[in-house]
Amino acid sequence: MNDQSYDQIFAAFEETSKNFNRKNQYFDILYDSLSHVFIDKSPFAEDISVNVKTSGVVARTFDGTWSEIALDNFSDLNKIIQRLPKVTNKGEEIAEFDGWKLNKEIKPEINPKDVPIEEKLQKIRYISNFVQNYDKRIILCKIKYMETETTRIFVNNEGCQLRQVIPRTRFLIYPVVKEGKTVDFDHFVTDGIIGFEIFDKLSDDKLEQIAKTSLEMLKAKKPPSGKFPVIVDSGMAGIIAHESFGHGLESDQVLRGRSYLREKLNEKVASDICVICDTPYTENVLGFYYFDDEGIRAGKNILVEDGILKNFIYDRRGASVLNATPRGNGRRQSYAHVIHPRMSNTYFEPGDYDLDEMVSEIKEGVMVNHSYFGMEDPIGGGLQATSKKGYIIKNGEKTQLLKSIALSGHVLDILQKIDAISNDPIDLHGGTCGKGHADLVPVSDGGSYLRIKEVLISPG
Predict the structure, then answer these.
(1) CATH number at residue 96
(2) Cβ-based neighbours of 445, under 8 Å, separated by 6 or more
(3) Does residue 444 sit in the same domain as residue 331?
(4) Distances (CA, A) of 198 to 108, 399, 414
(5) In this predicted structure, what is the pLDDT of residue 169?
(6) Which of 167, 186, 219 corresponds to the end of one domain?
(7) Over the range 24-50, which residues count as b (16 or more CB within 10 Å of their CB) and which as e?
(8) Under a CB-based contact definition with an 8 Å cutoff, are residues 250 and 340 in contact?
(9) Does one domain contain both 206 and 321?
(10) Same domain, yes or no, for 266 and 390?
(11) pLDDT digits over 393-437, tens only?
(12) Domain match, 22 and 73 both
């Protein structure tokens, strides 16, 4: 797409929008631009992907169903007027909101675009060599580095005129260790709305610590199987929040009758101490944004309050049908993808327990740390969450280190057995979430420590 200033884009979009009267039909238009650098390093290869800029425009209107047109060339804006249908008396099909204006560009301390690719490689090679040479039992070190900058410019026929530029950076280290026949690893991840200064977090002392956590896994034992009291850390709490009340609460799933939570609104779904939220406007985490891809201001969506299901996760259409207020969860992967109601930053609010107190009250149980993978069944309500490691809790003390642990069961049963939540600050962990295996968007999840009175665990 030809380069245009954002003022030029705003002006062209406003002119296009005038052709669609809000009383007759809802209309919006979005400019999307993405640049990225991905570096995947192992001792055997360095895979580098650089996308200087991919951009396009997508416009849509609603006349009972969505009609969309996506364009690669800015000069083709006239096709929007020619191809999108013109209707009358359909404006009330989509709830109307007050228009608003915003122009925000987040500027990192060190813009990655100003750093040559060779300098990035030098940093990554240094980290790889440091970790791998720390101990002869570290047989390889895998590193993933990802930087993106996303620009979204949005105009609709409600008076919205919005622009946001958001940089995101993510760094992962996987030291793989081997002793005798035992092979294992732990992993380190850091991410956020941050630039090249992310490397400041990776001092030699930190790299030494990362290496040691993987080496410790050589002494880890196989976890027990069965039902136990379990404490999960913020990462696993986030997986539970994301997988239990994530996809099952997305309003398109609810409207299609593909969610076990469809009939649970305003009913008890968790223990009284549980508050679960989805908040796009959570600063400095990977899932942060000011507005969604439908021009809705990012807000705080309280999904569960005092154990009661209060809200679904809405896009504009879902909110209109369900007579609800959207909080900024209509999201596209890019201009070439459709909008879905999606999670942003999903988490448990802190409780009032001290972690040591939570541990001390367990005679025999397990602590589950370092989330690694999760999946749910939004129709049946099943959940499985896997950690990289954990610990035996014996007579109120954390003892033996354990290998990967899988936690599974029915969501509502697990959540109603949460009997303590720590007072630690909310800790959010970033990643990418798909709608199935497509439509990937950046998200974060987390919380504080949770204690579950009894839940099924097994080796992960």
Answers:
(1) 3.30.2290.10
(2) 238, 239, 241, 242, 343, 345, 346, 347, 428, 429, 431
(3) yes
(4) 10, 33, 36
(5) 98
(6) 219
(7) bbbbbbbbbbbbbbebbbbeeeeeeee
(8) yes
(9) no
(10) yes
(11) 999 999 999 999 999 999 999 999 999 999 999 999 999 998 877
(12) yes
The range of the structural domain enclosing residue 390 comes to: 226-459
- DSSP letters, 247-313, are GGGBHHHHHTT--TTTT-TTSB-S-TT--EEE-S--TTSTT--SB-TTSPBP--EEEEETTEE---B
Neighbouring CB atoms inside 10 A of 349's CB total: 16
For residue 117, pLDDT beyond 90: yes
Q: How many domains is the chain built from?
A: 2
Output DSSP code: residue 198: G
**What's the mean pLDDT when you consider all of the chain?**
95
Q: Which residues are 291's β-sheet partners? A: 297
Tokens of 390: 């954990």
Contact 137, 177 (CB under 8 A): yes
DSSP structure class, residue 112:
G
Is residue 1 domain-resident? Answer: no
| SS3 at position 13 | helix
**Spatial distance between the Cα atoms of 194 and 201, rounded to a whole number of angstroms:** 11
Q: What is the SS3 assignment for 44? A: coil
Contact, 257 vs 321, CB < 8 A?
no
CA 158 – CA 155 distance, rounded (Å) = 8
Q: Tokens representing 405?
A: 């642990």
Indicate the pLDDT class of residue 450, thresholds 50, 70 and 90: very high
| Final residue in a domain of this structure, among 182, 199, 219 | 219
According to DSSP, the β-strands at 405-410 and 382-394 are: antiparallel
- pLDDT value of position 373: 78
Read off the amino acid at residue 58. V
Domain match, 63 and 187 both:
yes
Q: Does residue 178 sit in the same domain as residue 281?
A: no
Together in a domain, 213 and 233: no
Distances (CA, A) of 18 to 81, 161, 163, 186: 10, 13, 19, 55
Q: Cα separation of 369 and 449, whole Å? A: 10
What is the Cα–Cα distance from 226 to 249, expressed in whole angstroms?
29
Q: Which candidate, 276, 270, 308, 306, places its Cα nearest to that of 418?
A: 270
Tokens 């080496």: give the residue.
215
Residue indicated by tokens 């416009």 = 59
331, 429 contact by CB (below 8 A): no
Phi-psi region of 19 (alpha: psi -120 to 50; beta: other; left: phi over 0): alpha
